[in-house]
TrEMBL record:
Active site: 81, 140
Protein name: Peptidase M20
Single GO term (MF): metal ion binding
Statement: the UniProt record of this protein carries the keyword Metal-binding: yes
Protein keywords: Hydrolase, Metal-binding
Domain Peptidase M20 dimerisation: 175-267
CDD domains documented for this protein: M20_CPDG2 (cd03885)
Database matches in InterPro entries: Bact_exopeptidase_dim_dom, Pept_M20_glutamate_carboxypep, Peptidase_M20, Peptidase_M20_dimer, Peptidase_M20A
Lineage: Bacteria, Thermotogati, Deinococcota, Deinococci, Thermales
Top-level lineage group: Bacteria
UniProt keyword Metal-binding present: yes
Originating species: Thermus scotoductus
Family matches, as PANTHER family: ACETYLORNITHINE DEACETYLASE, BLL0789 PROTEIN
Amino acid sequence: METLAWMQAKLPEFLKDLEAFVRRESPSKDLKGLMEAAAFLEEAFGPLQGRLSRKDTPLGPILLLKREGEGAPVLVLCHYDTVHPRGSFPEPFRVERDRAVGPGVYDMKGGIVALLYALRHAEATGRKLPPLEILFTPDEEIGSKESRPLIEAAARKARAVLVLEPPTAEGDLKVARKGVGLYRLKALGKAAHQGVEPEKGVNAILELAHQIVRVAALEDREKGTTLGPNVVAGGTVSNVVAEEAWVEIDLRAWTLEEVKRVEEGLKSLTPILPGARLELSGGLNRPPMEPTAESLALFEKARTIGEALGLSLRPGRVGGGSDGNFTAALGVPTLDGLGLFGGDAHQKTEYVVVSEIPRRTALLAELLYAL
Ligand SMILES: [Zn+2]
């Protein structure tokens, strides 16, 4: 395929751009680093066709590249923050045999550079792209608080959403992601002197211990619904009956139906010890990304293109969330995992496979042409 040959010829240049981008370390909330990475994006994408605009937020700049055209646009989601504190890697970028290693190289700066080359390919060859809206966001790894309203507004008028998160470990695209909820259950009791009059107290830790067992019983592993009571705290000193205790619970589920079942279960918990009270707070951070006929049709397009490139892609399902969860929940066909092939996401050994870069980049370009 000609596109593949073009991408292969561009590989050395691609690696230089990837290195320049990855070297500008941009952990979430590190405003200086995020500004520098945003400046790279402006330099790289600015000269391309379309209008690049910028909105500064307390969590870093959000960039939008708009290319006009006929009909509803295709929305492309990219985040340029990473989970790695500055200086986590011995070197911010290195190539070892067939691996390029660096903070965010895989999740998802590599995907962003792939998009850059897909757009450059379109301009070099004059091939027609659909109207595009491309969002570059600085806060995905910390829940997309600032970006979410813009992502949802853009998705509502989009014909499809492509997410440049990396593919699964096996190289598959992502059509389903679990929803992610975070809840805090607090038990309130009554303090009393543990030695003098313990009978006047109500032990919040004991109350919470009973409740945690009930919370865990809401799991349904067969349906893939998990509940992790993973942080717990309570009490003050050992000779005072504990007045307060709380637990933080991580919920993951494939469907909204399961989320609702669990939430109802959490809300209907009642105190066991006389005089104890319970308070529940928190909620769903990212709704489940459930596959629909339209999103599977989008996947099928990508699969066919992949086949011509020698890739056998399957519709992957993963437990972690992305900004694709927001757009899929609005009913907009969403395909995720269109970034670069590699591994060790969120680890200090995060890498992309160099020899696979041209195929993944060609896949992205051809998919854009096909939309
Ligand atoms: Zn990511």
